[in-house]
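Recap from last week: sequence in, structure out.
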Amino acid sequence: MGGRFSFRRVALLLRSDAECVCPALLKVTLGAGFFLFLYFLATYGYDGSGIISVTTDAAMRWKGSVSKGCLVLAMVFGPSFVYAGMARPDARLAFMMRPASAAEKFVGRLLLSTVGVSALVLLAVAVADLLHLGFSLAAGTSDGLRSVMASLARETAGSVSDIFRPAPHDWPAALAHGLNAVAGLLFFQSLYLLCPLLLARGGFVVATFSAVVCRAVFVALRHCLPDTVSQSACDFMCMALGLLLAVANYAVAYRSFRRMQLVNGKWFNI
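Predicted structure tokens:
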């Protein structure tokens, strides 16, 4: 479909995809929230008076850190679900026949597999938080009722502020470190988008192996630099390289997505 890029069509695609996969994803999210709640209960203990303690400062910081880790993993691994819901040939045919351009379909699936998956992880944490609050209320706790979502917000805000908080007279180093972290996230995210598009099977495994190799190469390159190169300069170089590779991965992924054709119910990149 030609014409200008339309955000309205992207929104319609997102709504259609959400309606198709929403029931199954809600079940998975509720199940993930329950298992996350069980994982949170690993910190329970007794304060000596028979009252269960699950909301100590250390326990809540740990639960916030676990939730933050799940959210980061969702942002990195989410693009690997770019073809989620299209296992059947009829679903693939319906996707190809939608009245939207390749760019609109690509942006829609990318948003669904990144923002959508991250939102589902937040929903799973919220479900676990509600169960956690209910358990604390029913069992009794000497530390009061405390929210895991609030701990997640504090841990996330603390991590962001730690990355970008400049040391005295050293704000370039803090800025370089923060931008390097963002570039690394975008690069690894682009790997998990590209490999499933290029490979019909084993895309996630190949992306994981590539991420490990690339991480090792980045570390080796940093150690090969002379000692006269400052840490901030090294971070800026890694940031530039990471962003360059991420843009290249996204470009190749879009080109692969645009050239994808459906033949006898199977995807072919021609």
